Amino acid sequence: MTKDEVVTRFGPAFENSPWIAERAWDDELGPAHDSCGGVLNALLRKFRAASYGKKLHVLNACSDLVDQSG
Predict the structure, then answer these.
(1) Helix-strand-coil percent breakdown of the chain, rounded to 5?
(2) How far apart are CA 63 and CA 4, in angstroms?
(3) Contact call for residues 14 and 47 (beta carbons, < 8 A)
(4) b vs e for 42-65, b when ≥16 Cβ sit within 10 Å of the residue's Cβ?
């Protein structure tokens, strides 16, 4: 897959934060990541390595985590 294909396909996986897929492509995607688990591992590592602010932005964008009790 090209970088654009990876970003299009996996960018929405983390609450529409394509920077995670972009960083995974730029830094590490290769034959070892040629599976669902491999891609997920690469994406999770980029999320975990992000700054506190970037992680918080992704988590705040997750509607399932927002308190909807009023």
Answers:
(1) 75, 0, 25
(2) 26
(3) yes
(4) bbeebbeebeeeeeeebeeeeeee
CA distance 56 to 58: 5
Residue given tokens 């590592």 in the structure block: 45
Task: State both tokens at 49.
Answer: 């390595």
In tens digits, the chain (70 residues) has pLDDT values of 888 998 999 988 888 899 999 999 998 788 888 888 988 999 999 999 999 999 999 988 876 665 655 5
pTM of the model: 0.79
